[in-house]
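Section 3.1: Structural characterization of target chains.
Under the original work plan, the team committed to producing a structural model for every single-chain target entering the pipeline before any wet-lab resources were allocated. The record below documents one such target. The sequence was received from the expression subgroup and is listed exactly as submitted; it comprises 270 residues.
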Amino acid sequence: MPTCQAIQATTSTTPLPASIQQVIQQFADIFNEPTHLPHSRVCFDHKISLRAGTETFNLRPYRYSIVQKNIIDQLVQDMMEQGIIQHSSSPFASPTVLVRKKDGSWRLCVDRSLSAREDAIKLLIFHLLRAQNRMKQQADKHRSDRQFSVGDYVFLKLHPYKQHFMRKTQFHKLLPKYYGPFKVVDKMGAAAYQLELPKDAAIHNVFHVSQLKVCHDPTAAIVHNIPGFMSQPPTRVPERILERKMVKRGRVAATKVLVQWKDTPPDMAT
């Protein structure tokens, strides 16, 4: 299929010789850029003389028979339906979508800038998916599949509540963070459970599965001192001293005691 292409002409920036510039300036009225068609002349006129009574031709440069024209129209329609060609929005040339190579295969031809943009987007998606998979692998290392049944006993973790020392200390990792055990009375969906809490507990009895830990020994020491209000830390009242020992604080000897707090078992002493 023949196509037309537009070529933009550029003017030369090479300076003209002085002799030519002098001639152009001398006959400036002749070398002016025309703004209209030349006037009609008696001796010679700029036109193509036609025979009397004839009309101009308005025919295609290539004429086909009816059979060939129908075949061409059918081929064009099939190629448009298959996406090989498409309607052109350019007044100069028809866009080519697919080009047949020597080996008989078809190759998609698109704009280079569009192709580069698609490659950049594919590269970004690849790196994003790889980073997401890496983050998921690291997060899954600290996760476990927890499922409980009605009647099981679990420990309850109340963040940010944990056992507090009366004196200031910077080591809090080994402090107890779980309360209970408590009995599971109902399963709320796939990730929440309802627990049987003490009557004096002022918190809701439905918790996410991530806040629970299985209790293998329901007869273990029970810790029911759940905070009454989530915005206030629990009040610690010493009950008795279980053990006493001498420790060295720098060059000064100090006494360290093991205190059992009120409403807590001895194994929760600090």
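Residues 237-270 form one domain.
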